[in-house]
């Protein structure tokens, strides 16, 4: 099985996005005006001018993970997912998230559904340290057949402090931050594999997930269920990454701001997301973070090859930070004290614009 056969073709999606971008006109705001665009090719958020500051915006949704959540009646995590997918992108450009607005579309109104979503969004805002500044709810029978949830996050940073990848050079070190699980990408493939397996969501997970507290318990009972594993909320990286950026900017961190070269949110596209950050350098992952057992289960049940897994999922690593080689040890130590499991995973090289991996089949030359 692969992502395309389950209904999502990443290459076709990329072509569609390129067509959309090419059809857009230039900004109505001239450089120097508030709201004028700040170029950031390949970046994870849009940036606009705002006097001595820069505003960053990101928009995203939860996707078909919502279908599983609705199926088992557990929506307490999807608001966290929605906020995480947005604020994690803002972090990658060096922005501190400030506020969030949501969009909820349903085929029919249900106060219980909206209450569960509200509680989940509230918890996501707490973890991301953002204000829920408003939103929109729409009841759209005939157009929407199932619950849909998306949102937009706003962040800021001082002018001149964007994290762009421009300063990257061969020898810079890659630091990987562990994911909490599948996060919110690849669920069309997850659902296809789940259907093939015939495994019930409300029964004990058919593989060992350990007892490190990574999985949020919501179904009751002592055993972790498959539903709990597949619906585990996306990790929000405001703590520790925003804390790191602010500390370094204020001269109180393990390095200078200039040593924080680039960040990548490992979402749809997997490791190929790294290619968005530089036009010519190569990225070598020589010591990957441990793969969560749910990924191994998906690969086994769905007969999904390793390259497809690393292009569709985060495979245990939700964020990657590139730093100067001489500060890598200090930054890694600082981060790992706050998020255990964080460690060095690779480096940049001059071997051409591609991502390489210990598994020689996992090579990416385009996003």
Span of the ends, CA to CA:
21 Å
Class inferred from helices and paired strands: alpha+beta
CATH class category label of the domain at 34-158? Alpha Beta
Rounded mean pLDDT is 93
What percentage of residues falls in helices of 4 or more residues? 25-40%
**Quick one: overall form?**
globular
> H/E order of the elements?
HEEEHHEHEEEHHHEEHHEHEE
User: In CATH, what is the homologous superfamily of the domain at 34-158?
Assistant: PurM-like, N-terminal domain
- Taking all Cα atoms into account, the compactness measure Rg is 20 Å
Largest sheet: 6 strands, mixed
Uncertain residue segments: none
| Strand order in the largest sheet | 1-2-3-6-4-5
CATH topology of the domain at 34-158: 60s Ribosomal Protein L30, Chain: A
Into which percentage range does the β-strand content fall? Answer: 15-25%
């Amino acid at each position: 099985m692969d992502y395309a056969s389950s209904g999502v073709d990443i290459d076709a999606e990329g072509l569609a996005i390129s067509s959309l971008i090419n059809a857009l006109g230039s900004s109505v705001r001239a450089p120097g005006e508030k709201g004028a665009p700040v170029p950031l090719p390949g970046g994870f958020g849009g940036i606009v001018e705002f006097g001595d500051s820069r505003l960053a915006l990101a928009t995203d949704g939860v996707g078909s993970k919502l279908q599983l959540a609705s199926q088992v009646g557990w929506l307490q995590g999807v608001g966290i997912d929605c906020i995480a997918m947005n604020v994690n992108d803002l972090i990658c450009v060096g922005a501190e998230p400030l506020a969030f607005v949501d969009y909820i579309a349903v085929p029919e109104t249900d106060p219980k559904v909206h209450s569960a979503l509200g509680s989940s969004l509230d918890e996501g805002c707490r973890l991301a340290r953002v204000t829920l500044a408003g939103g929109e709810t729409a009841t759209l029978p005939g157009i929407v057949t199932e619950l849909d949830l998306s949102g937009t996050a706003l962040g800021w940073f001082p002018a001149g402090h964007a994290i762009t990848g421009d300063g990257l050079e061969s020898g810079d070190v890659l630091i990987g931050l562990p994911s909490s699980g599948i996060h919110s990408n690849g669920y069309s493939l997850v659902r296809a594999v789940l259907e093939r397996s015939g495994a019930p969501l409300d029964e004990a997970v058919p593989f060992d997930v350990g007892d490190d507290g990574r999985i949020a318990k919501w179904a009751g009972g002592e055993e972790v269920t498959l539903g709990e594993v597949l619906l585990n909320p996306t990790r929000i990286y405001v703590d520790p990454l925003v804390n790191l950026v602010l500390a370094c900017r204020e001269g109180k961190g393990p390095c200078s701001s200039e040593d924080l070269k680039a960040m990548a949110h490992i979402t749809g596209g997997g490791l190929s997301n790294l290619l968005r950050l530089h036009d010519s350098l190569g990225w070598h992952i020589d010591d990957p973070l441990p793969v969560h057992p749910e990924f191994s289960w998906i690969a086994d049940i769905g007969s999904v090859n390793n390259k497809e897994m690393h292009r569709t999922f985060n495979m245990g690593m939700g964020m990657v930070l590139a730093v100067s080689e001489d500060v890598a040890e200090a930054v890694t130590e600082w981060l790992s004290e706050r998020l255990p499991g964080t460690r060095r995973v690779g480096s940049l090289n001059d071997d051409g614009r591609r991502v390489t991996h210990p598994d020689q089949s996992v090579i990416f030359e385009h996003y």
